[in-house]
Write a structure and sequence with these properties.
mainly beta; about 50% strand
């Protein structure tokens, strides 16, 4: 049965081609273009491609689809090619649409939509097979960095088609990389991008992101977090008092020190003098009771780690103790009443105006 079917199909093809040849030899009216059109297709390896041959104003001419070797894939709605990956999606007088499943690199090329007119019309659909790169790989020159130093990183996207492009981000800031593209023996592309930059303490914990752009994949990226060591940052905080420092009051200062690695200890000293003997130092805290003006001066907190030393200063100025004013008593108060009259205004003389003046006698 299979041989009989193949023979029948061959007979149909022979009769149709012979008829077309006779028509071509006879005197014919000029053929109006029937607008045979198709579309180029880009498909990821292993996925499905759809090839569509479309005709406007068809006059019952036959549509067929050929592969890049010009072998007939479909003739009308019949498939002489024994590749079952090709399946008919739609057939009408205006369209022949065919699917190709599990696309491989060997399927790439120019496919031909052919319409049997006089002369025959052809339109070409280029199938491009996209091969995504492997997972991007980031390599760093330094695992641990020190503030102010420069470092380098590389990102590689291997074996893709076409070549991928690589972008770099440091946090939310884009970096400029230097790409290098290699064509491998199997006609794949390997892309390597290198980026160099200087780090500071704010970069500690910031992600460096390698973003691979390729038509076969979306949001393809790798990241590496920076580890940056830096010398301490020191800040003195006044815990007490909240206002002016006055004689007889107490003073409490806290030294806040942050660095990487974290400072293990901090030291208090008084610039150009000794810290008062009764001052209490506990870790980063300095406590002085019963202030007097002899304690005036600059107090310094110093913190260090393997990357360096930093300090912060607090200038102490002791003000006089506040004075109090005695509250007046009734024995110190004299009240005088003055009556004001006006000769020109009798009514005012009758009513009068009383103004009370109060005098305070201190002592």
């Amino acid at each position: 049965m299979a041989n009989a079917g193949s023979g029948s199909l061959a007979t149909i093809l022979f009769l149709f081609i012979s008829e077309a040849a006779l028509l071509k030899g006879a005197a014919q009216e000029p053929v109006v273009s029937q607008n045979l059109v198709t579309d180029n297709v880009a498909v990821v390896e292993g996925e499905m491609a759809i090839i569509s041959c479309r005709v406007k104003n068809n006059d019952d001419s036959v549509i067929q689809l050929l592969n890049p070797n010009r072998q007939t894939i479909y003739f009308r709605d019949m498939r002489p090619l024994k590749d079952a990956r090709f399946q008919l999606v739609n057939f009408s007088e205006n369209e022949l649409r065919v699917s190709l499943s599990n696309v491989s690199l060997s399927d790439e090329g120019r496919y031909v939509c052919q319409l049997y007119t006089d002369p025959p019309q052809e339109a070409y659909a280029d199938i491009t097979v996209l091969i995504p790169p492997g997972n991007p790989i980031i390599e760093a020159k330094d695992e641990v960095l020190s503030e102010g130093n420069e470092t380098e990183m590389t990102c590689t996207a291997m074996s893709s088609k076409p070549a991928a492009t690589i972008r770099w981000m440091k946090g939310d800031k884009e970096l400029t990389g230097k790409p290098r593209v290699e064509l491998t023996y199997d006609k794949m592309y390997t892309v390597t991008s290198r980026v160099a930059f200087t780090v500071n303490k704010e970069d500690d914990g910031v992600p460096i992101i390698c973003i691979v752009d390729h038509p076969a994949v979306k949001d393809f990226r790798a990241r590496k977090f920076l580890e940056v060591q830096y010398k301490p940052e020191v800040k003195i905080v006044v815990e007490f008092p909240q206002g002016l420092t006055r004689e007889g009051e107490n003073l409490e200062l806290t030294c806040q020190a942050k660095g990487k690695p974290q400072p293990q200890r901090v030291n208090w000293l008084k610039v150009d003098d000794d810290v008062p003997s009764h001052a209490v130092i506990t870790g980063g805290d300095l406590y002085i009771e019963n202030l007097n003006k002899s304690y005036n001066g600059t107090y310094r907190c110093v913190a260090s780690n393997p990357l360096g030393e930093s300090y912060d200063d607090y200038v102490l100025y002791v003000y006089d103790a506040p004075t109090t004013t005695p509250i007046p008593t009734s024995a110190n108060i004299t009240t005088t009443t003055i009556i004001s009259t006006s000769a020109s205004n009798p009514e005012a003389n009758q009513v009068g105006a009383i103004i009370a003046c109060t005098f305070f006698h201190m002592g």
